Every structure is written in structure tokens, then in C-alpha cells.
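Sample pair:
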Amino acid sequence: MLWRWVNDPAVRQASFQTEPIAWAEHEVWFRGKQNDRNCHQYIAAEERGQHVGQIRFDIHAMLAEIDYSIDERFRGQGFGAALLKNGITQLMRDIKRPLILQGSVKKENRKSRHLFEKAGFIRLNQKQETQFDEENKGRCVYRLRVTPAYTEEIAERQAVPI
């Protein structure tokens, strides 16, 4: 399922590395993530139990890089906002320490940019973004500081639509 999602043409187009991912490469990557205690990945399901997407947090010291994707059947229905909000809430329950969450998005990916902004993430200024974008890939970088007190109620006050 994750391999199918990562190779979805829209996901590849929104990614910084646009080439399809071979099964063997994905298998090695996935085994590594399963054994990485600093990787927290969650699969979201809707009320009937159908998987709608995934969100992953790769933690390095105090910084957690976010990766997410929504199954093509569920795009445009508000699942991205719910996935982000609920993923952060679950991560805080699991790790119980403050973090800076970071999402990197292509500048032309307006939907993801809007999602991070609505969730309360702050975009880094252009000078700060340059350190992440030496190859000038057109990257926007968003950050949000969260603590274990981050709950669904706090997320609601940040106006994340469900």
C-alpha cells in the first residue's frame, strides 16, 4: 500500500525526487524505517476502515521532518488536514517531549502550503529556506513548535479544518 501511494503520479510530481521508486528500493527503505526508533509513521483510516493516507515523522534531535500522502480516492475531502492534526496529536502522545515540526513543500504545491499554514505552521524566510534549497528546487519550509500538551483542542483553536 505504501509503495503504491509513493508511486502515485501526483505524489511523485509533488516530491522533490520525481522518479518512480522500484519495489526493491522501497523494501530496503521500509525495513530501515521499521527499525528506526526516530521514525514514527501512522496510517489513517476513515470510519469504514479504508486506508486514506499516511504521515511520517523522522526525528533528528529536536526537529521532526514531516512526510505525508493521501490515497488518490480521498483527496480533496479534508483528510489532509485531519491527517496532519491527528498525526501530530498521536506523535505527542507517543514521544512526550517538545519538538519543532518541519514540512518542506514545492513552491507550486499550493494545497500542501495551504495545509501547513492553516495548521499554524510558519514559513521560514527566504534566507533561511536557502540553506535547505542549495539546488534551487523551489522549496518552501514550514515549522511549528509543539509540546506534549498539543491536543486536538489546541489543534481546533489553530483552525485546522476536519
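Residues 16 and 135 are 11 Å apart (CA to CA).
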